[in-house]
Write a structure and sequence with these properties.
150 residues, alpha+beta, 27% helix, 7-stranded mixed sheet
Length: 150
Amino acid sequence: MIELRVVDRTYGVVLSELHRACFPDGWGVASMDEVLRSPGVYAILAAAGEQAAGLALGRRIADEAELLTIGVAPEFRRQGLGAALVRAVASVVPRARALHLEVAADNPPALMLYRTLGFAQIGRRKDYYRRPDGHLVDALTFAVDPGRIA
């Protein structure tokens, strides 16, 4: 059984290790700590017993919210955990006007997840992400009313 819980920055090392397991350019401990110290930022950890399974970091500023990052460990993917994490982020900011996010244009699983949950594309940032091999990928920006997530 997987448990989702809001955690504080004392989990920075765990969150950093998990982020690096999810992404080839995952955040190191110093980067994770810097994000976790930012105003309005909160973290959600998904755990299967003692094993970290997924994470989501969000930020709320005034009446807007942003999904900063979300990741699911490879062995827990395709089980609905990504959707559960997005819903958990939305539950922290139920009265925000919108929940925003950016996603790489070359990430079909994430794009399908966000569209299925009701996010609508609102923009594009050309050449926003730099991959480890140096090539650039556009970021697509999405938003949804957090109270309307499917």
